[in-house]
Amino acid sequence: MEKRTHLSKKNFYRLLILCGGIILIGSLQVLIETKDRDLFDLWLKVNYEDKAYTSLYLQEYIAINITTYYIKILSPLIILVTSYLTLKRFYLIPFYLYMWIILSFGGLAYNLVGLAFNSIFFYLNIFFYVSLIIYIYFIIGISNRDLKEGS
Fold it and tell me: How far is it, in rounded angstroms, from Cα 108 to Cα 110?
């Protein structure tokens, strides 16, 4: 018979730290990008090089950055919500682990497509996503498999 387990608090808190790091990095990145006038001027020159500045361009720039921010933090938020539910209410099943790994790979791919090699946030995001994938697969996945085989 298969032994059913909840996610341990130790694993939940480690997931919380990794996902929180991704969210913190994304928050700092969008804060710097929306507050820096030079980045806005560069964006304006690249996208609207021959048009005069209006406040609509600034609103568009901020809306684009905030939307990108929401997309970047969506996968860590889903991982955190589902891991909290497996901590308190539901049992940890392989589907959750596969979903977490797929979401992590999706977040990693989204960041890699950005190709922002000149940004420290790019490298920090990659580090946290790779750490999250390794932690979910090797630590949570293997320990959960060992519990199933041991019963």
Answer: 5
What is the distance between the alpha carbons of residues 27 and 3, in angstroms, rounded to a whole number? 40
pLDDT in tens, 18-37: 999 999 998 998 998 888 88
Assess contact for 22 and 128: CB atoms under 8 A: yes
d(CA 83, CA 140): 11
53/77 Cα distance (integer angstroms): 36
**CB of 123 closer than 8 Å to CB of 24:** no
pLDDT digits (tens, 9 = 90+) for 68-84: 899 889 989 988 888 88
Closest CA to 116 of 57, 46, 33: 33
